[in-house]
Known about the structure:
This protein is of the alpha+beta class.
Amino acid sequence: MTLTLAAYKDHNSLPGDLIKYDEELSPAASRILESLTGISDIYLKQFSIFSDPNRVKHPKDQKWLRKFRAHPEERVITVGYIALVNIEDFNTDATYFKDEIIGELTREGYYEKIWAKVTDIPDLAFDHNIIVLEALKYLKKELNHELSSILLPKNFTLPQLQKLYEDILGKKIDKRNFRKQILKEGSIVKTKHTTNTGKKGKPATFYQFNDTIKETVK
């Protein structure tokens, strides 16, 4: 599982935008998501609010903000949303990166979208590392069959499923116990398809989620 970041030179941050005066939160989140990714009508959930008065006061952050705001010293309150996006559906020509300021920086090669593994997040601007940790806490709490089915392809192997759980939970899971429990609860069903790696050894079986089951391994 990976996380999308906005990179300005050596200044990485989570992507986002300002809410308009006449917008409510949910419509604003949907608008910003589509402008960032070119995608709409996907999993999008509010998970926390970040309101520390000093969260944008670091000199390095202030220098960066001056490129985008007339009053960079003003207080900023961030409402965090999680969107689960298939990286293959991500539109690299999304409208956000055609914004007058962002677009100019992008064309000059100073601003770009990058992907980072959730297990290896770099140092981020403002309090964005804290936001990432809170987002992962939320996913851990919400991790279930329905959420897993969004993050995995329709057909997946047991190692892929276990890797997803390990990434979100932030810990290694015993292979034998995981498989025993996940198969016992019936949340996934075996398909007739297997991997064809061309290597020696038994090919891995593909599974699909059982839509009638909502339980999961914690």
